[in-house]
Amino acid sequence: xxxxxxxxxxxxxxxxxxxxxxxxxxxxxxxxxxxxxxxxxxxxxxxxxxxxxxxxxxxxxxxxxxxxxxxxxxxxxxxxxxxxxxxxxxxxxxxxxxxxxxxxxxxxxxxxxxxxxxxxxxxxxxxxxxxxxxxxxxxxxxxxxxxxxxxxxxxxxxxxxxxxxxxxxxxxxxxxxxxxxxxxxxxxxxxxxxxxxxxxxxxxxxxxxxxxxxxxxxxxxxxxxxxxxxxxxxxxxxxxxxxxxxxxxxxxxxxxxxxxxxxxxxxxxxxxxxxxxxxxx
Length: 281
Known about the structure:
Helices cover 39% and strands 16% of the residues. The protein has 281 residues and is α/β, with parallel strands linked by helices. It is globular, with a radius of gyration of 18 Å.
């Protein structure tokens, strides 16, 4: 059974429409899939229709942007009621800051790197203006020859501490976990290795997350090395957390992510899908 509980469509910053994401996952053997667009659940209806056609068990998902101790972390919500009153509005509130951040990043790139047209160019690449992200900016920079690839865009300009990095206040950790739980879902810390936290800070994040009712951590992710997967498996067991797995797929050939085929969970983990007693369609 192949399970992928983290991927994106063009509703946020992925390359493909939700139906194509489901088709690709099915073609790669996925039997359970969760579409987790950034701060948006607008692709789930289309994804469910495609999942029914392909015989895939689609789990409702979303990836919520959170500001924690001046850092951006992501919390995935799984198996919630997508029709829950208030959820779309709360997610829209989180998305509302993206255009303001894009304008500030565009101004910095124009001033510091003499790169013009970033605002308009990134918007043109986004399916929805309110979900425009740094990924779209990186794509614009790559397409226009300013960097070799998206990874260089983040390392040179967009990543934390880089010249065009603009901090933004997203949801709080408490708000994100509460949104997911109120809609009946499971809260998961996404790709924890990406945050480059010290051991002390990681423990603090886990302890605060658990105190708020968080239940799982993404142990197996395409961006995690084997050592990182083993380390987060140990942390999951130590803190009594369930473990999730996901490709974090955005497009073919990006970051080595293959949709429907994320790394396996270490055998010592308790899989998060054990909590999925009811899947809402």
